[in-house]
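hey so u asked for the seq, here:
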Amino acid sequence: MSFVDQSLMSKLGQLSREEADRAPFGIVKVDDNGKILLYNHYEGQLAGVAPSSAEGKNFFTEIAPCTNNRLVFGKFKKGVDAGELDAEFNYTFTYKMKPTNVAIHLKRDPESKSNWIFVKAA
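ran it, structure tokens below
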């Protein structure tokens, strides 16, 4: 069961920055290549990266290169290529921070064709 509320999942295509910033977990919207389109306040606090510094950069190679592997980026790319992405798993972030255990939920919204990375500290 995801830590992401179903009401939030149902409106991903219309999710505002204000709604994303109110969430009690990280929300990162990325394009099909991993370029960050939205980076919420919680994720900024968790990673120590201001949203204004993160947006426009690649999540997997510039902001969280510890995710540029088969487990995270591989699942993301496979799901994007298939047009279906809904994967949840535990992970440990290690880049520029002490090792931090998190739950990750990768999701592609088929209606808006948008990709989402949800992160919650474990």
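Helices lie at 6-9, 17-22, 41-47, 51-54, 59-63, 70-82. The longest helix spans residues 70-82.
lmk if thats what u needed
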